[in-house]
Amino acid sequence: MAGLVSVAVVSWNGRSYLEKCLSSLAAQSYPEIEIILVDNGSTDGTAGWVRERFPAVNLILNSANLGFAAANNQAVRRARGEYIATLNNDAWAEPDWLAQLVSAVEEHPRLGMAASQMVFAGRPEVINSTGICLDRCGISWDRGGGEMAHHGDCQPAEVFGPSAGAALYRRELFDEVGLFDEDFFAYLEDVDLAWRARWRGWRAIYVPSARVYHVHSATAREGSPWKTCWLAKNKIQLIARNYPFPHLLFYLPFILFYELLSLGFAVKNHMGLAALRGRIAGLAALGRALKKRRARRSEPHGSPGAIFGLLEPAAWPWQVYGRYRHLALVRYPEG
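Now predict its structure.
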């Protein structure tokens, strides 16, 4: 069994969810664990409540909301563990969650990331995520989302990367690849990290026995203007920084087609302004994204063909819609 595992939990006005989250971490069967909670400028009394209820938790207090990526990076820098786990504040894990993840990645030294079986808290029979999928049009989604949990994979499987909502990373991976990119603020930062890690030869595994219950987007509701804007901006950044060349030239028309389709769908759902604002922000930051892409070229990395081979085939528009249809059924606790 490996050594210490550091678990990072980021919270912004999420005190109502932390009881289950932190209690599940305190009950882990894994013998060596430290919990680091980053409070992102909450105004709901989170800090005082955590000090009283969970005094062993290592608390980092921010005066403002720095974003999911930056807050997790603060936890990684403070962490002492050989492994770093990330868990959303609106999620709670079964007692053997960490033990199962660590056991899986120890099978191979280049397994640097592990994805959990995340199920919806309100519908635990339905899968929320079993890792990240990414297709050749630059569209990412939760692997297995909407499938019945008891019909899902029963064996570990290699995946593109894990959802940072419930993931395990080797510290060596962060040392080699870098931390979450703070330009993303929130959303798709885990896809970016997985893509950068894949360029450096790291692998990821889905561990179906590592089970987590997730409320899903409790902080920023699914389909909110805020989330819509950041997803639009970050998708542009994601593709500009990571998509292999020359494959990007061939697929760029398809990428643009789906961007227009997505924008039209946002307009239909009264989110057109947020979607447009996000895309404008993404295009405005394109120079910075390309600069980071060029910097990566000087590092040892895999071949463009091999990276392109990790991407799922392009899908028809109705198939893309089907990847997210189950999210319309997400329900949030009252209060």
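The first strand starts at residue 5 and ends at 11.
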